[in-house]
## 1
Amino acid sequence: MQLELLLSVEPARPGDPAGRPGERPARPGGRTARVRASVRAATLAELGEKGYQGLTVEAVAERSGVHKTTVYRRWGSVEGLIADALELASGEPWPVPDTGDLASDLRALTREVLAGFTDPEAGPVATAFVSAAVQNPAAARALHAFFAARHEQSAPVVRRAVARGELPADTDAAEVVRVAVAPLYYRLFVSGEPIDPAVADRAADAALAAARAGALRTASPPAGSSAG
């Protein structure tokens, strides 16, 4: 859900050659993969220090040790750098709680979001990605895909609750996750209201109450399932 895992990339050694434009790494430890990771690490560091408005291809190239012409050839622009960083992050696993209780799992999820956006290192990067998405369609599409992936990765906490009989059988798992985290994003990026663990817990509890009441069901219940 949050973007803290984006900061876990080790930069590649300066001078490592990159692949052709749009080429995907042939193997996880190959040169192309190392260059991609190095450029992403530099992109994240620049975003954290300077924000979206201060991000430049030149600065990323210098910081990563990858030649500027290579960065331009493969990523094309600042927007390409941002989209690629988010694409890589979308495919990375992240810890999903499994306490055996949906209320505790949802609270853990919302607190994870809170931690990601208030962390001194990860927070500015996450905020910069959101800022980029507001201003650029390509970044917006990449951020949408990132959050869609995170919501789907989080959905098992709800599906397990359905299997335990805590929720109606046709509950929309991803929608429960979205409803849980949405109030946090509203405070962070729209209203500017204070946000703390108590707020995160209330958001989780509200989503749980809505799901239990049957307000977050799929449009068409699975065949043969009960309404709960």
## 2
Amino acid sequence: MNRRTWIIRLAVCALAAHASFAASVASAADPEVVKIGFVGPLTGPVARVGKDLQYGAQLAIDEENAKHPTVAGKPVKFVLDVQDDQADPRVAIQVAQKLVDDGVVGVIGHYNSGCSIPASTVYHNANVAMITPGSTNPQLTKQGFKNVFRTMGHDGVGGVVAGHFVVEQIKAKRIGIIDDRTAFGQGLADAFEKGAKEANGNIVDREFTNDKAVDFRAILTSLKSKNVDLIFFGGLDEQGAMLVKQMRSLGMTAQLFGAGALKSNAFLQIAGPSGERTQDLEPGPALDKLPAAQDFGKRYKARFNQDVELYAPFAYDAALAMLKAIHDANSLDRQKIVDSLAKVSLTGVTGKITFDPYGDLIKPPYTLFQVEQGQWKSIKTVGGGA
């Protein structure tokens, strides 16, 4: 071997060793990717709500990653694994299984109770923590699954509170009820009816529709003939807006009252002047009066170039709770995260986040909103504390 060949080989070996060392150093420094699932309706009629929830969770993830987090002494990077359940229970089961197979350590979602309930079984079987920022049907947490949590009060409380309120505070004399026959809408209407009857309210009729309907004139004509002075609607905002427009076109002066779904920009845009005096009892405190929520709104708009639509703060807090559970457990083990989440205590944008043995929020607050001059205005908050 001549001197030139020997020098070339030596140089090649040195370069290879340097590259190997550099790669090993880079590998040691690169954070481990940790997937947290997000599921909501990202297409279809309520896609705007799903995107709002997604952005709320994403903001929490982004802010956490900016802190260069570690778990068990190793750097990690949290990534939101986003899936669309299309507000369809069958699709919800499919994407839940996909998230489990993707290796997520926890899930933020779903929005619709009709999706969360069947999907929760998939997560339960895989020991994956699930925090819903929007599903309020009481049956979700009555299944006895230790991995299921939510960051807002459920309808078994909120619906009953609403029932008492319309009788004892609004003094409604002849109440009509309409629900959309979804897990959310029917469950909410059932709870409202229970609360109204507990307060000795007079429910003169209960009608139902479906969550795809756009014409409510037949059932409204029936309610008008019974001289109702208040209609409770168990359903979502866009249908509620169409409902109140048709109420006014039929000459009805009855007040429309909802719980947990009417307060949105979409309701105001669709209902127009017909929406005046509509009231809605929403889970959570009066966010427009909380400095933390106002600051959240500014950060949200700066990041996504749009205002909060509806429930983004609840998704943000769900993500905060999941992240805290991971750090408290100091582990990426799914079961350890579930166990840690059950003991989580934090103050988020929406208030105190602590869970009872069923995974429900302890002492959740509710706020009454009313449409005044084309805007939702908070009237009063009931409940809350910890």
